[in-house]
Design brief:
By secondary structure, the chain is mostly helical. The chain contains eight helices and no strands. The chain has helices at 9-14, 34-51, 63-94, 96-121, 133-138, 140-160, 166-172, 176-192.
Length: 194
Amino acid sequence: MIIIETISFSEAFKYPFKVPQRLLYILLLFIPIIGWLALFGYAVRLVNEFIEGRYEGLIKLDFMEDLKLGFMVFLKALPFYIGYMVILSAAMYVNETLGSILNLVLGFFVIPMLAVNFFRKQTVESFFEFDVLNVVRDNLGEYIVTILKQYALVIIFLILSIVLVGIPAMFFTNSIFVANMYGRLVERKTDSGL
């Protein structure tokens, strides 16, 4: 069993700048659909790196493989997001405030961990493995700190967007803290057979 350390805020901040030329991968955003899917596949691979506790720097983009991965993961995610939108729309229809609160709660406590689980397993079913949310419930304080650190990192990179480097840094570290927590608390439990 590999022990994955908790990533520090400073290490997460430095991560995208360890191989700075790879920040240019963000330019794929200017290629509609194909570039977006390749970046999505790349982001899935990054999350898996984070889960495994590897933070040497941005990995190399493999355009065709990342494009295929991005396309397949996008298709597999559709059932979950369609269901999510139906539930939110129904809640908004009943009461707009209720819909907003539900969106906030799901976006903070549910979606991040389910998304990381989905990126790890890459099956339609993995987005519906609500058992993984037991990690959130059982480690609520740590989870809240993890999400707050993620938001703080996003805010710092938003400020750095003034000089453009913040945009790719924010994109490529989008789930770094949640993926680290998943690797430590979900994968470790699975690996040790707990």
